[in-house]
Specification:
The protein has 405 residues and is of the alpha/beta class. It is built from 12 helices and 11 strands. The strands form 2 sheets. Strands 1-2-3-7-4-8-9-10-11 form a 9-stranded mixed sheet, with helices on both faces. Strands 5-6 form a two-stranded antiparallel sheet. A hairpin with a 5-residue loop joins strand 2 and strand 3. Helix 7 packs across helix 8. The longest helix is centred in the first third of the chain and has 21 residues.
Length: 405
């Protein structure tokens, strides 16, 4: 296997050097005919494409555990400068055989808004305490039980979450650390939610059918389960969002759980919103050469250097959200994530939205930086690098106002 340095050195980041490629249409059926109605898409074609992504990319989806319960750990009525109610909730998962797992969720709710309010749900990278500047927020994010991944990073990523601004717009916002669902390290399956469903002897073969992305998506679905029990939150107006690998996760979550009304992918790149067949920037070889190659099922590895053989591409993942709104965000300096490939996924997913009488993405030419395109499929490319900022959040909040108010 080549080193990451060798792989990155071979990235194609010049549009003039791209080779021609052909995308499959999500409307094409195996018998040579095409899907012609929303009914046929919902009842037949969508199911087939979803299964293809399970088998070839993200893995199967484990069910709800035998028991799911919620424990209120704390409640503050004067959070975020007396603008929000802050709750910390422990999500308990248990099986009838005695196996247990739990994760802690941080939830902010506008204090003075009419309840129930719509809610943004997302996973964080370094712990709940890193997303907020409130010093008494519980530390979360464990690589193994008892060992925090980032114990000293309190408040360092508040800019990615913009809780105060989201609250001011009348939305609740909740987060869980992704390490608490599946620690993002090699051979961590035994400390993940998968230990509920599988024996230690089965962990080595887990990547053939299950993935960390699937475990992280499981967590987002269980967060939404909680929202359905909280009278201060409107679970029927829930938005799933994520950045980078968690942007990939957000897309997969929106595909498998149609309760989410809007799906947001922020800088998700290869394996997320970007088209594989362009082979621009990060590619399959790079993804499976990471320390966490098991983000994707083993079957995905066969496409290393052979993206042209894929019977699918990521525009079909976006199409699985139809007719629900979906937003894809890129950044001008995030070249390896292939911003144009992310945009083109939105363009090519739009034909499925048109089955529902929707337009999808309202343009076929890539917009200038910092000029959002808003439709059932929305897109913007922000000036800057691989990150999630207030500039991104402004577009997300405008979309939520448009589709959920």
């Amino acid at each position: 296997m080549r080193s990451m340095e060798e792989i990155v050195a071979d990235y194609v980041v010049d549009e003039s050097k791209l080779k021609p490629y052909t995308l499959p249409s999500p409307l094409d059926k195996p018998d040579g005919t095409r899907v012609s109605s929303a009914f046929e898409w919902v009842n037949f074609q969508r199911r087939k494409i979803l299964q293809l992504f399970k088998t070839e990319v993200y893995g199967e989806v484990v069910p709800r555990p035998d028991s799911v319960s919620f424990e209120l750990l704390s409640r503050r009525e004067d959070a975020l400068g007396n603008t929000a109610i802050r709750k910390e909730i422990r999500l308990h998962f248990a099986m009838n055989n005695g196996k247990k797992h739990s994760v802690d969720m941080l939830l902010y709710i506008p204090r003075n808004a009419a309840k129930p309010v719509p809610v943004f749900l997302g996973l964080n990278f370094q712990g709940n305490h890193v997303t907020t500047d409130e010093q008494d927020a519980r530390k979360t994010g464990f690589s193994v039980p008892g060992k925090l991944v980032h114990p000293d990073a309190r408040g360092k990523q508040t800019y990615r979450w913009c809780f105060k601004e989201v609250i001011a717009r009348g939305y609740a916002s909740a987060t869980v650390c992704y390490h608490d669902l599946y620690p993002d390290f090699v051979e961590s399956a035994g400390n993940s939610i998968y230990h509920l469903f599988f024996e230690p002897s089965e962990m080595a073969s887990l990547p053939d059918r299950y993935t960390p992305i699937g475990a992280w998506a499981f967590g987002l679905c269980r967060m939404l389960d909680y929202m359905e029990t909280d009278p201060e939150v409107d679970a029927s107006r829930a938005i799933v969002h994520g950045h980078s690998r968690l942007g990939k996760t957000a897309l997969w979550t929106g595909a498998i759980d149609t309760r989410f009304k809007i799906t947001i992918s922020n800088n998700s790149g290869c394996g997320g919103a970007a088209l594989h067949k362009r082979k621009f920037g990060e590619n399959v070889e790079a993804l499976i050469s990471h320390d966490c190659a098991d983000w994707f099922v083993t079957a995905f590895h066969k496409y290393s250097g052979r993206e042209e053989d894929m019977p699918f591409d990521q525009h079909e993942l976006i199409a699985l959200m139809a007719p629900r709104p979906v937003c894809v965000a890129s950044a001008t300096e995030d070249i390896n994530a292939d911003p144009k490939g992310e945009f083109l996924s939105c363009v090519h997913a739009s034909e499925v939205y048109r089955l529902f009488g929707a337009k999808g993405l309202p343009a076929t030419e890539m917009p200038p930086p910092d000029t959002p395109l808003t439709g059932e499929i929305s897109y913007h490319i922000r000036t800057g690098g691989h990150d999630q900022t207030w500039d991104d959040w402004q577009h997300y909040l405008d979309l939520a106002d448009l589709y959920l108010r």
